[in-house]
Write a structure and sequence with these properties.
The complex is a heterodimer of chains A (about 525) and B (about 650). Chain A is mainly alpha-helical and about 525 residues long. In chain A, a hairpin with a 4-residue loop joins strand 1 and strand 2. Chain A has a domain of about 220 residues. Chain A has a two-stranded antiparallel ribbon. Chain A has 21 helices and 2 strands. The C terminus of chain A is likely disordered. By secondary structure, chain B is mainly alpha-helical. Chain B contains 23 helices and 2 strands. In chain B, strands 1-2 form a two-stranded antiparallel sheet. In chain B, helix 14 runs antiparallel to helix 18. About 0% of the residues of chain B have low confidence. The chains are: A mainly alpha (about 525), B mainly alpha (about 650). At the A-B interface, helix 5, helix 6, helix 12, helix 14 and helix 17 of A face strand 1, helix 4, helix 5, helix 6 and helix 22 of B.
Chain lengths: ~525, ~650
């Protein structure tokens, strides 16, 4: 862990949107045109800083970088402790880049000021969650995220928004309550091993020696909170409601980064802090993931609402991510980390486009839409690219993550991987079927005047399309940064549990007789 | 040239990119010429590579060029790398060669279509993907191409997407292919676990060196075969191919006859050492599935009335022949038939397209007849294609089909089984001669039945089929020539005339199984088969031209033994119901439980509120306020501590 002495970039990444929220709130009611401008400016600065962060991030290093650590409550060992490594860097960057896209790509329609303010608070919370290296600090950010999301769904959502917001809130709160108990207990118990009270996850992970049963209880307390957030089958039913009812920006952010708080949490906290318990509960989590992959896809197929369909597809995709997390191979875990980003980009883009459809047609019912490709061919092409990325066609980003997860899982959990791989068939089924019903055919009266993709919309979605291609063609750029941290995490598990990661070694090409013609 | 082999796929890719940006501006026909040029230059480069390879000694004909490291994680090191060896270059030659001809043809065929440039965007993307598939040095690059051609196939089948049948056919093709892709993926996982790499060189040399366990080899073989069944339309996954005829005819010729559908055969030949290490029942299954598919599809072709459907089932049937060859260990024969088939089937499809074009988009053969006079070049070339596929010497198809039949007859192990398969293949060959004769007669000879249907074509009495433009006829003539002389690639007389065998030798020497048959048996089989095929054509002549024998075309054959209908029923009824049940269960049981818990908690908690909203909003505020208070408290404390 290297202490950074220069500009506290991570702190700035949290504070900028937070200050932005305050500034936006302070804007006079008579100057509504400034709201969007200010919100964009602050999220723009955040985006620029996150890109700068990525550029200066050292690839090939496993530990935390840009660490910013200041004691906060000494007596309790709580500190303002931020850092990024290969597991979190891209999530931070995605968080930085997604907000301007969400702000530009979708309108609030009413009460723009609180809308923008809540969005910025949300960004601060998400940023903090991904960077916190302190359990307590993480919890605070994790909770902060809940509140703006609740209001975004509840105030700017669609017809059933109150029910959805409530469900989202209560569901997540129950998980959080468990986690709060879990993390306090973790710190208290770890004190006996370490000698002083601390919430620093690195100190706890290396210094603590929980009894097996204790570790498992603590694991569960965290795991349930994160499983709700992912969401893992059967705790997923808040998601379709939240997604369907949320305003477009809410859906984009929810799919893009919020769900990743769950998968990230499982990897960062559950596996890191409780390796023994992670190994112990592995079959359960693998099984639930595989069920989620198939079940999410099957249920998605029958959805009548486009947003619900994409929401259920998220259940399936996130199943893959959890599968890779608990495979305990560096390829699967790297795939999981990468897939968090990929899913964020492609599902984020899907929600953005579904939002555009719903904006134009005032409906998301698949049966109300028809023949859009004929009237809006460019819109259809962009949608096709995003869809193919979501289906996992090689050359696009979605494939690389899924493939790494599956091939890595195959090494340690063969049959789970074999069954999970059938998910790729189902993914093609539900998306292509929906595409056919919405875009193919002859457009009827109501769909004849469907507007083509506008320049602004195109520019908003362009970075996502670029990312879809880039990550599919040259994933090495990401993997070089992700892999060292993932390897270190697995080495940590190996050290703590005696588990040995299977690494197939390439058999050298045999010495050939002249006839063989091999190089 | 070997070092810049990546240029070959790059050319169609840049054609794709240019047309994406400028296609609309270039328009009809310039964007088509651009695409065709890209494909043509790729062909020339492939030719250069071929001569480069030829100039080397046999053992040096294996060149890997790595572009960049694609997916490097842990033990998994996958490069974006190309392999130039006799097999991959052979494939690339006929893909780019026939591809160029079909690009040219399409310029004429698609003329006037509002989405003209888009068609060539897809076509170039297809050529790129197909080249990635065959030139890939490892399974994942091949898989990239594999999925790429599948995607292009989807886009091109549903090219006329306002037609519901086209849209459905595209989706069906993609999803069915995905079933096969699952097998391909599992095969990659198995290979990685066994040899720590996805490179063909590593996998094959492990198989040749005996370090690949027999069970693993068998599993990889079978899983790849599942993939091949999807892509190459074998039983039970063939169902998408007949429907794929919804696409424009050049697409049918290029993708669904000459190139993409042969990818499965290519894949099996590529890993022939692995198949050689598998238990003998594994190749036997491949041979059985191949022969069964060949016969099945041939019986169905006999009763089809759509000019393209006949050819589609015929393609399925001929692919079955190729898999029979693979199952016999006769890899040269498989590739040989793949090439000749590409010649004559592309010719037949393009010919049928010319007919459809000339008939103003009529595809029903019952409304054709006597077209030879009005479309002499189309008819003449089509007739050559017919002779080639029917197995009449000395045309191309005769030689390659003969090899496959011989390899089944003379298979050294499991002789009984393979003799039965030989019988099946022979019957299939006779049926092929029969239904192709039927088609030729129905389309080009007999009575001009289109006159009775002229009203339907909206021509109001003025309807007259016409010959196609030169740009469409040129590819026909070239392919016609190839269909005549294609056999010279691998004439069975002496070792020096078996050119393809000695050329492919470095790739297939480990897996190729040489049957043993005396010269007399060989001659007898060849002459006998040819004679029977000609007899079969004679029968068809009597039935369809002279009407001496009543045609037997039972409805069940026209319906493809009702297999497709069964699958559709299964997916539509029980399958859909199961999916709906899952969705229902999610709403009522999984989510119901959650709502039930919430309701119970609320009731027992004694919090009686009219609306949920009021309850939760307060609750949320409470939590939010709590968090803020907590933060404030900690902050104040912290300030105190610091102070």
């Amino acid at each position: 862990m290297s202490e950074s002495t220069s500009f506290p970039i991570l702190t700035a990444l949290v504070l900028t949107p937070a200050i932005g929220a305050v500034v936006v709130s302070a804007i006079s009611k008579r100057r509504p045109e400034l709201v969007k401008l200010a919100a964009l400016a602050f999220s723009g600065i955040t985006a620029a800083m996150s890109i700068w962060l990525l550029c200066t991030f050292k690839s090939g290093e496993a530990g935390m970088q840009f660490v910013s650590k200041h004691s906060w409550i000494k007596a309790w060992g709580i500190s303002w402790n931020l850092g990024v490594d290969g597991i979190s860097i891209f999530l931070v960057v995605l968080t930085g880049l997604l907000w301007p896209i969400a702000l530009l790509g979708a309108d609030a329609h009413h009460d723009e000021k609180p809308y923008a303010a809540w969005l910025l608070i949300l960004q601060a919370g998400v940023m903090g969650s991904f960077m916190s290296q302190d359990l307590f600090l993480f919890f605070v950010f994790f909770e902060i995220v809940l509140v703006p999301m609740y209001f975004l769904i509840g105030r700017w959502g669609y017809e059933g928004r109150i029910y959805a917001a409530t469900k989202f809130f209560l569901y997540t709160m129950v998980g959080s309550a468990l986690m709060l108990v879990g993390l306090v207990t973790t710190a208290l118990l770890a004190r006996r091993d370490i000698g002083h009270m601390t919430f620093d996850i690195h100190e706890i992970a290396t210094g603590s020696h929980f009894a097996a049963s204790t570790g498992r209880w603590l694991f569960l307390a965290f795991a349930i909170a994160f499983a709700v957030k992912v969401p893992l089958f059967p705790l997923h039913t808040w998601l379709p409601d939240a997604h369907t009812q949320a305003p477009t920006a809410g859906s984009v952010i929810l799919a893009g980064v919020l769900l990743k708080l769950g998968t990230y949490g499982l990897l960062r906290f559950n596996v890191f802090l409780f390796p023994e318990a992670s190994r112990y509960f592995r079959p359960v989590l693998l099984t639930l993931s595989v069920i989620g992959i198939l079940y999410g896809a099957v249920v998605a197929t029958m959805q009548k609402d486009l947003k619900r369909l994409v929401a259920y597809s998220s259940v399936a995709h996130l199943g893959f991510i959890v599968l890779g997390t608990f495979a305990f191979t560096s390829s699967a875990a790297s795939g999981s980390v990468m897939q968090m980003i990929n899913h964020g980009v492609s599902t984020g883009a899907l929600f953005l486009m579904v939002g555009m459809i719903s904006e134009r047609r005032h409906t998301r019912e698949i049966s109300q839409l028809k023949g859009l490709q004929k009237v809006a061919p460019i819109f259809a092409v962009v949608f096709t690219v995003v869809m193919l990325s979501s289906i996992g066609v090689p050359g696009l980003n979605g494939f690389v993550g899924e493939f790494l997860i599956l091939i890595g899982t195959f090494l340690t959990a063969r049959w789970w991987a074999v069954v999970a791989a059938t998910g790729v068939i189902l993914a093609a089924l539900y998306l292509l079927w929906a595409y056919q019903r919405v875009f193919h055919g002859e457009p009827d009266e109501a769909n004849k005047s469907f507007r083509e993709l506008t320049l602004r919309e195109g520019l908003v979605i362009l970075p996502m399309i670029a990312a879809i291609f880039f990550c599919g063609v040259y994933p090495k750029a990401m993997l070089d940064r992700i892999e060292p941290s993932v390897k270190e995490l697995i080495a940590h598990v190996e050290e703590k549990t005696g588990y040995q990661e299977p690494v197939p070694v390439a058999v050298p090409v045999a010495e050939h007789e002249p006839k063989e013609g091999e190089e | 040239m070997l070092n810049v082999i990546w240029l070959i796929p790059l050319l169609p890719l840049s054609g794709f990119a240019i047309n994406v940006v400028l296609g609309r501006k270039l328009g009809d026909p310039k964007s088509g010429y651009l695409a065709a040029t890209m494909c043509g230059v790729a062909f020339i480069l492939t030719l250069a590579t071929y001569f480069d390879l030829l100039s080397k000694t046999e053992e040096e004909r294996h060149h890997v060029s790595t572009i960049f490291s694609w997916i490097p994680v842990g033990g998994l090191k996958i490069d974006a790398a190309f392999l130039a060896d006799p097999l991959s270059i052979t494939m690339a030659l006929f893909i780019t060669g026939i591809g160029t001809l079909i690009h040219l043809y399409a310029i004429g065929y698609m003329h006037g279509d509002p989405k003209f440039s888009k068609f060539f965007i897809y076509l170039n993307l297809f050529a790129f993907s197909m080249l990635m598939l065959v030139l890939g040095e490892n399974m994942l690059v091949t898989f990239l191409g594999w999925e790429g051609v599948g995607t292009c196939s989807y886009l091109l089948i549903s090219f006329w997407h306002t037609r519901d049948s086209a849209a459905t056919a595209g989706k069906k093709a993609f999803v069915t292919n995905r079933v096969g892709d699952w097998g391909f993926m599992i095969a990659m996982f198995l290979a990685f676990q066994a040899v720590g790499s996805l490179s063909y060189s590593v996998l094959n040399s492990a198989a040749e060196g005996g370090t690949l366990a027999r069970s693993t080899g068998t599993a990889i073989t079978m899983m790849l075969f599942i993939g091949a069944c999807g892509k190459s339309a074998q039983l039970p996954l063939y169902i998408w191919l007949p429907d794929a005829m919804e696409g424009p005819t050049p697409v049918s010729a290029l993708i669904h006859a000459a190139t993409m559908v042969t990818a499965g055969v290519y894949l099996m030949v590529r890993v022939n050492p692995v198949i050689a290490t598998a238990f003998t029942w594994a190749p036997a299954i491949i041979a059985i599935v191949g022969a069964a598919t060949a016969l099945f599809a041939a019986t169905v072709a006999v009763a089809q009335n759509d000019i393209k459907k006949v050819l589609a089932y015929s393609t399925v049937s001929q692919l079955g022949f190729m898999f029979l060859a693979v199952g016999c260990g006769a890899y040269t024969a498989a590739i040989f038939h793949m090439i000749t088939h590409a010649f004559f089937k592309a010719l037949l499809f393009l010919g049928s397209g010319s007919v459809i074009h000339g008939m103003h988009h009529e595809q029903d053969m019952r409304k054709m007849g006597a077209l030879r006079k009005l479309m002499p070049i189309t008819a003449g070339t089509f007739i050559i294609g017919w002779l080639a596929i029917a197995g009449v010497p000395p045309f191309a198809g005769f030689w390659s089909k003969d090899e496959i039949l011989l390899s089944a007859w003379a298979h050294p192990t499991n002789t009984g089984l393979y003799r039965v398969l030989w019988g099946v293949a022979l019957v299939t060959a006779l049926l092929t001669a029969f239904y192709m004769t039927r088609q030729v007669i129905m389309v080009f000879f007999g009575k001009a039945r289109w006159e009775d249907h002229s009203e339907e074509h909206g021509a109001h009495g003025d309807f007259k089929p016409h010959e196609s433009p030169a740009i469409m006829l040129l590819p026909l003539v070239v392919l016609c020539g190839l269909s005549i002389v294609g056999g010279v690639l691998n004439l069975p007389f002496t070792d020096s005339t078996k050119r393809l065998l000695s050329w492919l030798e470095p790739v297939i020497h480990f897996g190729e199984i040489e049957g043993h048959a005396s010269a007399g048996v060989k001659w007898g089989l060849a002459v006998g088969t040819a004679a029977l095929c000609i007899a079969s054509m004679g029968v068809a002549y009597l039935v369809y031209q002279r009407n001496k024998i009543k045609a037997i075309e039972p409805q069940i054959l026209a319906d493809g033994w009702r297999y497709d209908r069964f699958v559709s029923w299964f997916m539509g009824k029980p399958g859909r119901q199961a999916f709906e049940a899952a969705a229902w269960a999610d709403r009522t049981i999984v989510d119901g439980a959650v709502n039930g818990v919430a309701t119970t908690v609320r009731r027992t908690g004694g919090v009686i509120r009219r609306t949920q909203s009021g309850f939760v909003r307060n609750y949320a505020l409470l939590i939010g306020g709590g968090v803020v208070l907590m933060l404030a408290w900690f902050f104040l404390r912290a300030v105190g501590v610091f102070g």
